[in-house]
Write a structure and sequence with these properties.
alpha/beta, 11 strands, 7 helices, globular, 5-stranded antiparallel beta sheet, 34% helix, 6-stranded mixed beta sheet, single chain
């Protein structure tokens, strides 16, 4: 599903990624844990095409987003990035749009799906997420856990093959972490979704992961299986 080979990224003299290698299998939930400043977020941004590496390769289903540090051409890059969903740490919902509009905006604008079809898919996603009754609510009317689910729904609306989470529990009350873990496992089980999570929360990682890796000082290591 995802293959990262020899990934390197420097910011000035600071070597943030030091030859990172990573492979994800289809339907697998992989968690990367580690302290702030260890390179987790930079790795995630490279995988999503938001940050360009200095060297190394990233491929999704055999299609290269970056090869030997060089990006795919714009057309191929856009096609590959459609297969990658990202749920931001702070959710990044559009405050002026209701829940259904947040979920349907990208399919309509990016994929060119008709409004009626996008809304039909959006309502199906909200049903899967248990938010059927919130489709006309605005983000300010939602709890943290509900915002998290809407952010997940927005990513799902693009029908990605890989969905990435950036610190999915950091903006939530501690009591919500179990709910988020169950939802992520449901994504893997019922939608065969490949999931990559970065977090500093080892307890959450152990709760949700098929596989845990640790990252520190730009190096990915210490693989543990939780199958």
């Amino acid at each position: 599903m995802l293959k990262v080979e020899g990934l390197e990224k420097n910011f000035g003299k600071n070597k943030v990624l030091k030859g990172v290698n990573l492979e994800l299998k289809e339907g697998e939930i992989t968690v990367i844990v580690g302290p702030s400043g260890g390179g987790k977020t930079t790795l995630l941004r490279c995988i999503n095409g938001l940050t360009a590496p200095d060297n190394g390769s990233i491929s999704i289903n055999g299609k290269y987003l970056f090869k030997d540090g060089k990006a795919a051409d714009k057309k191929d890059e856009l096609e590959i990035r459609k297969d990658i969903g990202l749920v931001f740490q702070s959710f990044n919902l559009f405050p002026h749009m209701n829940v259904l509009e947040n979920i349907t905006e990208a399919p309509r604008v990016v994929l060119g799906i008709e409004k009626s079809e996008a809304e039909k898919r959006g309502r199906e996603i909200l049903g899967f997420l248990g938010l059927e009754d919130k489709q006309l609510n605005y983000p300010y009317e939602l709890s943290g856990g509900q915002k998290q689910r809407v952010a997940i729904g927005r990513a799902l609306a693009m029908e990605p093959k890989l969905i990435c989470f950036d610190e999915p529990t950091s903006a939530l009350d501690p009591g919500m972490t179990g709910e988020v873990a169950n939802l992520i496992k449901k994504l893997s089980r019922e939608k065969s979704m490949t999931v990559l999570i970065i977090t500093h929360d080892m307890a959450f990682g152990s709760q949700v992961a098929d596989r845990i890796l640790s990252m520190n000082n730009g190096i990915l290591k210490e693989e543990h299986m939780y199958m």
